[in-house]
Backbone:
C-alpha cells in the first residue's frame, strides 16, 4: 500500500512496536489493532509526503526521491498504486487477507455497513483503471 519497500519496512517495525506496547488482551482484537495501526501509519506517511511535495513544488524544485527500484513491477501493481490508500487497504484486507467486513471496519475505523459500499466503490474504481489501461476485457463482478 505504501509503494516503497523501505517505507513499508519502517511502518511494519513501528506497527509491531506499538502492538507490543499497547495491544489489547484478546487475540482477535490484536489483529485489528495491528491493521489499524499500520493503516494509520501509512496515511500519516502519505500526508507528510503530500505536505513535503507541496512545499517543494512551491519552491519550484523537482521531486526526485523515487528510484526506479521502488516502482511497482507489473501493470496491475501500477494500477493498484493509483488507488487511494484507503481503497488499497479495503481491497487488500478483503481479497488478499480474506478479512470479514466487521474486521475491515475495525481495522480502518469505519462503520461495518460502510465497508460494503466502500469495497464496491474501490472495486469499480480498480475496474475502471484496469480498463483504462487495457488490462481488463470484461466485468470484474
Residues:
Amino acid at each position: 500500500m505504501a509503494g516503497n519497500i523501505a517505507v513499508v519496512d519502517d511502518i511494519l517495525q513501528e506497527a509491531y512496536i506499538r502492538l507490543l506496547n499497547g495491544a489489547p488482551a484478546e487475540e482477535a482484537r490484536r489483529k485489528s489493532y495491528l491493521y489499524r495501526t499500520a493503516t494509520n501509519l501509512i496515511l500519516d506517511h502519505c500526508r507528510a509526503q503530500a505536505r513535503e511535495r507541496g512545499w517543494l513544488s512551491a519552491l519550484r524544485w523537482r521531486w526526485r526521491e523515487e528510484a526506479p527500484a521502488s516502482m511497482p513491477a507489473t501493470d496491475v501493481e501500477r494500477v493498484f498504486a493509483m488507488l487511494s490508500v484507503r481503497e488499497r487497504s479495503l481491497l487488500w484486507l478483503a481479497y488478499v487477507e480474506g478479512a470479514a467486513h466487521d474486521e475491515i471496519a475495525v481495522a480502518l475505523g469505519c462503520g461495518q455497513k460502510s465497508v460494503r459500499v466502500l469495497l464496491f466503490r474501490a472495486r469499480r474504481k480498480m475496474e475502471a483503471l484496469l480498463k483504462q489501461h487495457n488490462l481488463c476485457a470484461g466485468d470484474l463482478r
